[in-house]
Amino acid sequence: MESIEQINYIKTPIETVYNALVTESGLSEIWTKKLKVKPEIDFVNEFDFDEGYTTKFKIIELIENNKIVWECVVSDEEWIGTKVSFELTEKDSITTVSLKHYHWRERTDYYRWCSYNWAMFLNRLKSYCEK
């Protein structure tokens, strides 16, 4: 199994980053404007990227200001069954975000392209939270 792993450092309190990752107002600025999101275990977040289908992630772990884990239940075939986690820590007023997209069946060109896009996601998260 393959795993994409990215990290970023954001000069803002951990609460700001956590809220950006679990709310419609935050994720609509970072990922897509077309979404349905609720910070509840077992809720299925929906993200529409105008690709002919809606990507759906079930929330399987949610620890306030610490960890978020999604499991992909509907999306591109390569994403279904994968998991995305965001682990947050704060030190000296800087929040570290460790993103992992794991349980990929193989390393494909789509996997590599997604790795790039997760890095861009973290860059947008940083810009959004620091403004």
Automatic annotation (TrEMBL):
Q: What is this protein called?
A: SRPBCC domain-containing protein
Q: Which family does it belong to?
A: Belongs to the AHA1 family.
Say which domain of life the source belongs to.
Bacteria
Limits of the Activator of Hsp90 ATPase homologue 1/2-like C-terminal domain:
11-129
Q: Which organism is it from?
A: Echinicola strongylocentroti
